[in-house]
Amino acid sequence: MMSKSELIQKIADEHSLAKKDVKAVIESLATVAYKELKKTGAFLLPGFAKFIVIKKPATKERAGINPFTKEPTVFKAKPARKSLKVRPVKAAKDAV
Q1: Which of 13, 56, 67, 89 gets the highest tally of CB atoms within 10 A of its CB?
Q2: Is the pLDDT confidence value at 96 over 90?
Q3: DSSP string, 23-64
């Protein structure tokens, strides 16, 4: 897997740019994405992927049965939470 510094170096070499400039662009892209996800709940990176915030509701504590031992168990309650889902765009799927 490519690290952040390797990615910056590769982009800088391919486009003959300074590493400092490439790093600034990548970091600003990340901050824009974070703000957009927080504000609207979705961010599209054209040609790559769509990032979506999924809101999962809180669950109550409930009784259940362990399917292996058939013993009654109690499943703990979970608080409401947000998770991130990434959906690749068609171009990214076709590239793989």
Answers
A1: 89
A2: no
A3: HHHHHHHHHHHHHHHHHHSEEEETTTEEEEEEEEPPB--EEE
Give yes or no for residue 23 having a pLDDT over 90: yes
| Whether 57 contacts 83, CB under 8 Å | no
Are 53 and 42 in contact by the 8 Å Cβ rule? The answer is yes
* DSSP-derived pairing of the beta strands 42-45 and 62-65: unpaired
Spans of all domains in the chain: 1-40, 41-96
- The residue type found at 72 is P
Architecture of the domain made up of 41-96: Irregular (4.10)
